[in-house]
Structures are given as C-alpha cells and as structure tokens.
C-alpha cells in the first residue's frame, strides 16, 4: 500500500499498470543512488591522442636506420628481398613499436605514406616485366568453344526426347 501512495498520489486499480512499474523503478533508483559512493566508481582511463608530429619524427628515425642499413646492400640487389629482409623487418618493427608507444594505431595514413616514400626511393625499379597474354592456338580455341556448344545441344535433345517419352518412363 506504501508504493500505491508515492508522492501523495493514490493509484487506483483502473490506472495503467505501466505507471505503477515506472513509479517503482523511480523509487528504487532514488534509494539506490543514495547509497553509491561517487569516489568508488572506477573512472575510464583517459585516451591519449596520437601525436602526429612525434609520429612523423619517429618514422624519420626508423627510416634513417633503414637507409643506413640499405647502404650496405648493393643497389643491384635491392629488388631481391633475400638480401635485405632482416633490415626491412627491423624497419617495419620500428615503425610499429614507435607508433604504439606514442598511442597511434599502426598502420595509419601517416605511417603508410612514409613507407610508400621509402618504397619509391629504394624499390621503384623493381616492377616485374608485364606478362603478355597470348591467345591459345586456333585448334585449342575451337575445341574449347565447341565442347560446351555440343553439350548444350545434347542436353536440349535429351530433355525434348524425355518429355515426348514421359508416358513410358513414368
């Protein structure tokens, strides 16, 4: 009966039951918030923003180390990954570690643009020769065209023949 007389409002049996449920939730909410200590509520850690200036500086540091290591590799071997795979791995690990250390995700557009600049500097002449596509010989091409055509005609003939002989096959 106490819940039915909240704030001096008498709830009749005719009133909506949702009104009673909302009032009960309001009362429980008021009672529950009185017992909560605000200092005991854990706060979310503040999210540090990515310092893009420091990120670019760190990418330059990583790139300079990679350039120093690539100076020991003969330029004729720059297109052969086996000659500099460990140097490239160190460069990639350096960019990823430093980006994470300054709270930047990796890869991001700044890191990607720097890596593209490194690739253009060292690996711009490493494109493979284009493969020239050639048509197959005429005999092979004719066979490849005629087989599906004859199979299609054979399937059509089989369907027509079976539909005419449906009384025997059923």
UniProtKB/TrEMBL annotation:
**Keywords, comma-separated and alphabetical:** Cell membrane, Disulfide bond, Glycoprotein, Membrane, Receptor, Signal, Transmembrane, Transmembrane helix, Transport
| Pfam families in UniProt | RAMP
This protein's membrane topology, according to the annotation, is: Single-pass type I membrane protein
Entry-linked Gene3D superfamilies? Receptor activity modifying family
Record-level GO cellular component terms: cell surface; plasma membrane; receptor complex
Q: Does the keyword Glycosyltransferase apply?
A: no
Name this protein carries in UniProt: Receptor activity-modifying protein 3
State which gene encodes it: LOC110489708
């Amino acid at each position: 009966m106490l819940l039915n007389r909240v704030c001096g409002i008498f709830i009749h049996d005719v009133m909506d039951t949702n009104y009673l449920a909302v009032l009960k939730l309001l009362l429980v909410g008021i009672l529950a918030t009185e017992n909560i200590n605000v200092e005991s509520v854990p706060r979310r850690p503040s999210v540090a923003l990515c310092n893009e200036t420091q990120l670019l500086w760190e990418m330059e540091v990583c790139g300079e180390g990679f350039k120093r290591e690539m100076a020991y590799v003969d330029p004729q071997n720059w297109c052969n990954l086996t000659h500099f795979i460990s140097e490239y791995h160190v460069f990639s690990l350096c960019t990823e570690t430093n980006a994470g250390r300054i709270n930047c995700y990796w890869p991001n557009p700044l890191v990607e643009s720097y890596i593209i600049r490194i690739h253009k500097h060292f690996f711009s002449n490493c494109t493979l020769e284009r493969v020239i596509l050639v048509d197959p010989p005429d005999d092979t091409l004719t066979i490849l065209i005629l087989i599906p055509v004859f199979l299609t005609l054979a399937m059509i003939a089989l369907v027509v023949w079976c539909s005419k002989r449906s009384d025997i096959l059923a």
